[in-house]
Amino acid sequence: TLYPHVLSAPDGLPVDSERTPFVQAMPDEFKHEDATVAYRNYLLAKRCEWSTRGLYFTYKDREMPEWIKL
After folding, report:
1. Of the residues 10, 20, 23, 50, which has the maximum number of CB atoms within 10 A of its CB?
2. How high is the pLDDT of residue 8?
C-alpha cells in the first residue's frame, strides 16, 4: 500500500515553505483576497443566472450548504 510512503515528505522537498496563493479562475468582478469568499460569490451569481434559465443546483445525499441558501 501507499500508506507508509505518504507518512513523511520525500528527501529534498521543502516542508516549511509558505503555501502559494490559490488561483481564482473567474471574472475579475468576483475576485477577493480570500479565495473561499471569491468562489462563494461567483457560485451565488451563477446560481441566480442559471435559475433564470430553469437550471438549479442539486445536492445528492447531503444538505445544501448554509452559505448558498437564499
Report:
1. 50
2. 78
What is the pLDDT at residue 70?
60
- Backbone CA torsion sign across 44, 35, 27, 58: negative
Using alpha carbons, select from 69, 47, 23 the residue that is nearest to residue 31.
Answer: 23
Quick check: is 12 in a domain?
no
Range of the domain at 35: 27-70
Tally of structural domains, the chain: 1
**pTM for the structure as a whole:** 0.64
With respect to residue 57, please indicate whether it lies within any of the assigned structural domains: yes
22's CB contacts (< 8 A; 6+ apart) are 35
In a domain, 16, yes or no: no
| 34 located within any domain | yes
Phi-psi region at 61: left, alpha or beta (left = phi > 0; alpha = psi -120 to 50)? left
